[in-house]
Description:
Elements: E1 3-4, E2 10-11, H1 15-30, H2 35-45, H3 50-63, H4 69-80, H5 85-98, H6 103-111, H7 116-122, H8 135-144, H9 146-149, H10 153-165, H11 169-182, H12 187-199, H13 203-215, H14 225-237, H15 241-252, H16 261-274, H17 286-291, H18 302-314, H19 318-329, H20 334-351, H21 355-365, H22 376-392, H23 396-409, H24 413-423
Antiparallel strand pairs: 1-2
Helix pairs in contact: 1-2, 2-3, 3-4, 3-5, 4-5, 5-6, 8-10, 10-11, 10-12, 11-12, 12-13, 12-14, 13-14, 14-15, 14-16, 15-16, 16-18, 18-19, 18-20, 19-20, 20-21, 21-22, 22-23, 23-24
Amino acid sequence: xxxxxxxxxxxxxxxxxxxxxxxxxxxxxxxxxxxxxxxxxxxxxxxxxxxxxxxxxxxxxxxxxxxxxxxxxxxxxxxxxxxxxxxxxxxxxxxxxxxxxxxxxxxxxxxxxxxxxxxxxxxxxxxxxxxxxxxxxxxxxxxxxxxxxxxxxxxxxxxxxxxxxxxxxxxxxxxxxxxxxxxxxxxxxxxxxxxxxxxxxxxxxxxxxxxxxxxxxxxxxxxxxxxxxxxxxxxxxxxxxxxxxxxxxxxxxxxxxxxxxxxxxxxxxxxxxxxxxxxxxxxxxxxxxxxxxxxxxxxxxxxxxxxxxxxxxxxxxxxxxxxxxxxxxxxxxxxxxxxxxxxxxxxxxxxxxxxxxxxxxxxxxxxxxxxxxxxxxxxxxxxxxxxxxxxxxxxxxxxxxxxxxxxxxxxxxxxxxxxxxxxxxxxxxxx
Length: 431
């Protein structure tokens, strides 16, 4: 009898490697520790297990895991020949995605929507940066997969994240809470709920829930830094900079264990904190830079490139931005070339004392920024940098127009501080 995966798809391997692989995928879907170790065990038990090799390549590509990506892809392709049509398509989708072409991945899901690992890869969430170039495409992938999952808790958490992206926050909250009721330690569902709180300006109750979850059911989740980042974002929005400082020291101070997550979470928080009017005693970015590795100058995804650019800007490293921009401009990935390279150039202008021109270049990027993946909450660091640049350039009317759009969407004490800075420019209020 053939082995089966978590959603009853056949696996061409024995029971023991299949069980190890399923443990790894289950950990990924929950955002729990151990996916690399479990999937590695599956190929140790069966060196011919193609999907195990493909999963390791994904972990290396997306999670900065210490994996020889090229070797894993080569083994996956070699051994996929003995697998099923679905497994061959899966391996081809992974190989193409890692090399910058995600169209085969999207096509694969149209035929096998229950391939949960690849559905997770295809949709921008906390785990993966996403494989589609248009948000509506990701939404359609999730919607089309509904018959394959029914009332499955993991799928409910994934759909909750899509609903908050669509601005359907009540539905997002209901779905997230349903998923968490069945699997309280579900990282995806908790992430969707965190975004629903943030996007509606529900900072006080969102912070209280996030803290309870981090120290309770969520304590088993791998790399809790992103959830701590969400909590810090609530504190920053409420203007409680002392709380941000305490949380940074306790939960977000970069360590080698965080890997590239330090670039995404700690690095972006430092910059947003730095440009907050009246902020002081912000930690130096040096430890983030130290732990960033090759992602700082040779990022594998547009999402990481955006965060690398922000970190280099925070470090006042114009030459680093030049190097990053050149890497992105030479990439085969269109988003790295067309969005991330111009972003690095724009931020370099800020460091060279041309904040007005920087703001204009950032404005030009606004309509295409979604292409880097991630969430609105993550990408808005670019908009906040534009506000800071406009303030530095003394273009207060332009800054107010951007700030007022944000305040129309949700309450935020920090945005009120930005707005105050447009009326009372001076050393104490300017970023």
